[in-house]
């Protein structure tokens, strides 16, 4: 006797196949939506990191310029404050942060000087100019990614030990074998070491 398949078997299999295909398609679209959101968040964080570092580096430049001016003026207490990172105004930091955010297709929504573990820093919040994009999740077509970052400016030098020549400026810096000694009476801003020797700039963890 022949084994004849019932006509209802195919009818039962087809709906199951359609149902499984729909689930897989929905899962793929959901995964794509989450990937879009993650990409936008990563882009926002990169923009925030770059903007915070740019602002902090501008502050570092201000500190170095102020240090040189104070040394040339012979203001002992003042140059020590500049060397310790205590005298900045961050006047140009926002402009530097805005420029780097714009290069990353984002806009700075807020920025200000701050303090991290006793060190000066610069905090930036950004919003992407682009949206997450169309997806199966409602509202993503108008949703902008946001992120925040903080960069720290850490002084790397200390004033020279007691006994240094009274008419000279002396300080020691991390990683430098010999102390740096400067005569204020015969001083040129180029006598100062590179800004990266005097201050390190890095993102706060």
Helices, strands, pairings?
Elements: H1 8-73, H2 76-83, H3 93-103, E1 106-116, E2 119-131, E3 144-155, E4 157-159, E5 169-173, E6 180-182, H4 195-198, E7 199-203
Antiparallel strand pairs: 1-2, 2-3, 3-7, 4-5, 5-6
Helix pairs in contact: 1-2, 1-3
Short description:
With 205 residues, this protein is of the alpha+beta class.
Account of the 3D structure:
This protein has 205 residues and is of the alpha+beta class. It has one domain (8-203). It is built from four helices and seven strands. The chain has helices spanning 8-73, 76-83, 93-103, 195-198; strands spanning 106-116, 119-131, 144-155, 157-159, 169-173, 180-182, 199-203. The strands form two sheets. Strands 1-2-3-7 form a four-stranded antiparallel β-sheet. Strand 1 and strand 2 form a beta hairpin. Helix 1 (8-73) runs antiparallel to helix 3. The longest helix is centred in the N-terminal third of the chain and has 66 residues, at 8-73. The protein is elongated.
